[in-house]
Amino acid sequence: MLAILLLLLAAALVCGRLGVWQIDRAYERANLAAQQEAAEAAATGPAALGELVAPQASFPGELVGRQTWVEGEWEPDGQTLVAGRTLDGVEGYLVLTPLRVTDDGTGGASWAGLSGAPVLPVVRGWVESPTPDAAALDVPDGEVRVEGWLQASESTLRTGDAPANPGGPPLTQDIASSHLANVWDGPIYTGYVVLTGSDPAQPAAAEGGPAPLPRPVLEGGSDVNLQNFFYALQWWVFGLFAFSLWIRLVRDEMAGGRRETRRRADRTDDPVGRGIAGLPS
After folding, report:
1. How far apart are CA 125 and CA 213, in angstroms?
2. Residue 273 gets which letter from DSSP?
3. Which sequence ranges are marked TM in the entry (predicted)?
4. Whose CA is closest to 124, among 42, 43, 217, 204?
5. Alpha helices (H) along the chain
6. Which of 56, 107, 174, 264 has its CA 20 to 30 A from that of 27?
7. Per-residue model confidence as pLDDT tens digits over 28-86
8. CB pairs under 8 A, 24+ apart, for 12-20?
9. How many CB atoms lie within 10 A of CB 114?
């Protein structure tokens, strides 16, 4: 039984290790797929915003991380900071600025039936303090061409209101178009842009401007490769089966030993082997 135990435990350990290897492969393949997707998105170059999504239209999930360009004028009076956002392990704030769109590549056709020119939420970068330097809040005057990554609007499910921010811009918890539509005038997009560059340029991070952000990804879209994940589950099931098989063998052996003990006890109590009538069997 000890030899069988060692054999089955070895089999269970091998199955467990193969399961861990499959999990590693699942995340490795997901990361490679995300890198390839980002490389392909960068290679295609920015597309006009109006060719991808119209103001107030539903935002397709496949556009997350897509490069785009749009022209408009900053409205710094509507600028706000998004609290509780982390960059490189440091918690800080996103600088969210409305851009009044003047050209999205459609010549205004995308908002022809709306009440006026739409406003686009643009995350211009990240700052550590809720009262950043003036350079972080400074934007170029006049028309500007903005390029960046598209991201879907967030929900307003976070609990609690943003605290007051004396000496700095207003704070918000989310980048939610449903909320911003009540703060900014005019039609609004159901997504936002994470800025990668603009012409004229905003102050650089080295000059006190907001720090640039990485490309957004669709949450949960490339966390793990499901095929490798289920392979891992199969190996772990095999390992549990090997261990449960040994437990079953031990229980059967113990049950057999108890039966043998009872038979020996019966022979001891009835040494001549008499039957139930008291006669020799």
Report:
1. 6
2. -
3. 229-249
4. 204
5. 2-44, 49-52, 134-137, 177-180, 226-269
6. 174
7. 656 656 655 655 555 567 999 999 999 999 998 888 889 999 999 999 999 999 999 99
8. 12/239, 12/240, 12/242, 12/243, 13/239, 14/239, 15/235, 15/236, 15/238, 15/239, 15/242, 16/235, 16/236, 16/239, 18/232, 18/235, 19/231, 19/232, 19/233, 19/234, 19/235, 19/236, 19/239, 20/232
9. 14
The DSSP code sequence of 187-226 is -B-SEEEEEEEEESPPPPGGGTPPBP-PPP--TTSSS--H
Tell me the three-class secondary structure of 61-80, residue by residue: HHHCCCEEEEEEEECHHHCE
Q: Which two tokens stand for residue 278?
A: 């008291």
Specify whether the CB–CB gap between 178 and 156 falls below 8 A: yes
Q: What is the gyration radius of the CA atoms in the chain, in angstroms?
A: 33
pLDDT digits (tens, 9 = 90+) for 173-200: 999 998 899 899 989 999 999 999 999 9
Given pLDDT bands bounded at 50, 70 and 90, which one contains residue 262? low
Q: Sort strands 143-152 and 47-48 into parallel, antiparallel or unpaired.
A: unpaired
3-state secondary structure (DSSP) of residue 5? helix
Predicted pLDDT of residue 221: 45
Distance of alpha carbon 211 from the chain centroid:
22
Count CA within 13 A, CB hemisphere, residue 113.
5
**How many angstroms separate the CA atoms of 233 and 228, rounded?**
9
Residue 245 has what pLDDT?
A: 77
Average pLDDT score over the chain: 82
